[in-house]
Amino acid sequence: MSLRKALFMGSWYPAKSNECEKLIKEYLKDYKKCSRSNIVGGVVPHAGWYFSGSIACNVIHNLSLNKKPDVFIIMGMHLQENSLPYITNKGAFETPFGNISVDEELAQELLSKFNFIVEDESNFIPDNTIEVNLPFIKYFFPDTKILSLGIMPNNDCFKIADYLLSIIKKQNINFCVVASTDLTHYGKDYGFCIKESTKEALEFVKEENDKKIIDAILNLDEKLILKIAKKYKNACCSGSLACMVSLAKNFTNEKPEVIAYSTSYDKHKSDNFVSYVGCLI
Q1: Count of Cβ atoms closer than 10 Å to residue 6 Cβ
Q2: What are phi and psi of 16, to 5 degrees?
Q3: Using the 8-state DSSP alphabet, how is residue 208 labeled?
Q4: Which long-range contacts (CB under 8 A, 24 or more apart) does 9-13 make?
Q5: Computed from CA positions of residues 150, 248, 134, 190, in that sequence, does the dihedral angle turn out positive or negative?
Q6: What is the Cα gyration radius of the chain?
Q7: Cα atoms in the 13 Å half-sphere on the side-chain side of 220
Q8: What pLDDT, on a 0 to 100 scale, did the predictor assign at position 58?
Q9: For the segment 212-265, what is each residue's pLDDT rounded down to a tens digit?
Q10: CA distances from 114 to 78, 159, 190 (A)
Q11: HEC states along 162-192?
């Protein structure tokens, strides 16, 4: 079986399972239970665990209390508007808790319909957006298979969501889906610096810039997500975010819920900072 090696293990998160589990138990002390009765998906961040691990952990933990899926769909990757989508169609992903097998049948269904760039164990983009969340998925869903997708921020993402929807309904697939995205990247290092002070910048990001994209998520408006992210630079993986919302909204009548929000400034004071949100749909 081909195995996609974990490249961020030992740096962005621990390499040993006992060290990962110790951190997960610490993160669960911040646990906020979702008030909704039916959860099918969510939004997770993808910085190193030090900065955003607690948020991602608690989103995926909430999902595990509600679902026992056959497949866990995770969407991410930093792609451009003119990019093709990415997929891993066979084998498994390495995590400290053991390998996660790819849902090869579901991957093949998508490959029969769309022109994906196919990644394998020897040819793939080093990508933190998906990898840093895989240990949480394996820990809380030890027996699930995974479908890993890189989704570009253009209207073709909705075609992928619609086709996934048709497969899931036709085959009665039990699934969870998350989109991996961080929010505003602020500061000179990110080419986005419009306020005179860090205090003003933090207020702008939290109360204005991030609020726009979070409101679009809460309103389940996938088309607005793409427009807002492009205009305000407040979601680095907006294609995955829009695709996830477009799919997940078909399986719930309840409004999404924010369970956590923070910035890297909370952990490390700097003029350059990134913000994170955890949502459940």
Answers
A1: 19
A2: -100, 140
A3: I
A4: 9/94, 9/95, 9/96, 9/131, 11/48, 12/47, 12/48, 12/49, 12/128, 12/131, 12/132, 13/48, 13/49, 13/53, 13/96, 13/132, 13/135
A5: positive
A6: 18
A7: 16
A8: 97
A9: 999 999 999 999 999 999 999 999 999 999 999 999 999 998 999 999 999 999
A10: 19, 9, 33
A11: HHHHHHHHHHCCCEEEEEECCCCEEEHHHCE
Kindly give, in sequence order, each residue whose CB lies less than 8 Å from that of residue 46, ignoring residues fewer than 6 positions away.
52, 56, 76, 128, 129, 130, 132, 133, 180, 181, 182, 237
Q: Encoding tokens for residue 192?
A: 């986005």
Instruction: Please give the single-letter amino acid code of residue 39.
Output: I
pLDDT attached to residue 153: 98
Averaged over successive runs of 10 residues, the pLDDT of the chain (281 residues) comes to 94 98 96 86 98 98 92 98 97 98 98 96 92 98 98 98 98 97 97 94 98 98 98 98 98 94 97 97 96
